[in-house]
Amino acid sequence: MQGEIEKHWLDCSLYFVSFSVCNPSCKDGIYKIVKQIVVREGITEEEVIEIVKTKFHNVISIEYVDLFNDDVLFLKE
Predict the structure, then answer these.
(1) Contact, 19 vs 61, CB < 8 A?
(2) Tell me, what's the pLDDT at 41?
(3) Residue 30: what pLDDT?
(4) When comparing pLDDT for 8 and 39, which is higher?
(5) Comparing 55 with 10, which gets the higher pLDDT?
(6) Mind giving me the DSSP string for the chain?
(7) How far is the C-alpha of 7 from the C-alpha of 61, rounded, in Å?
(8) Cβ atoms 45, 65 nearer than 8 A
(9) Could you read off the pLDDT of 16-75 as tens digits, one per residue?
(10) What are the helix (H) ranges across 1-77?
(11) What sign has the CA pseudo-torsion 28, 34, 39, 42?
(12) What contacts 45, CB < 8 A, 6 or more positions away?
């Protein structure tokens, strides 16, 4: 089981995504959100954008999508 968990994490990529959403019930209406999103390795930036648009309501713009170091090493103690 331990080996399966470690392999699972090694097959993932971490993206930082900044986007704006509109909240009609709020006075100013626009909020900027920065999220860390972990996805299966091989997912492209375009696919990450589609995930964000699907998971969050009222996305009006996506400012950036940045892949965090894809050569991250996970070390065991």
Answers:
(1) yes
(2) 84
(3) 83
(4) 39
(5) 55
(6) -HHHHHHHHHTEEEEEEEEEEE-TTSSS-EEEEEEEEEEETT--HHHHHHHHHHHSTTEEEEEEEEE--TT--PPP-
(7) 34
(8) yes
(9) 999 999 877 766 678 889 999 988 888 899 999 999 999 988 898 999 898 886 555 555
(10) 2-10, 45-55
(11) positive
(12) 15, 65, 67
Is the separation of the CB atoms in 16 and 30 below 8 Å?
A: no
What value, to the nearest 5°, has the Cα angle with vertex 8 and ends 7 and 10? 65
Domain edges within the chain: 2-67
Are the C-beta atoms of residues 1 and 46 closer than 8 Å to each other? no
Distance CA 6, CA 52 (A): 26
pTM: 0.67
Distance of CA 6 to the CA centre of its chain: 20
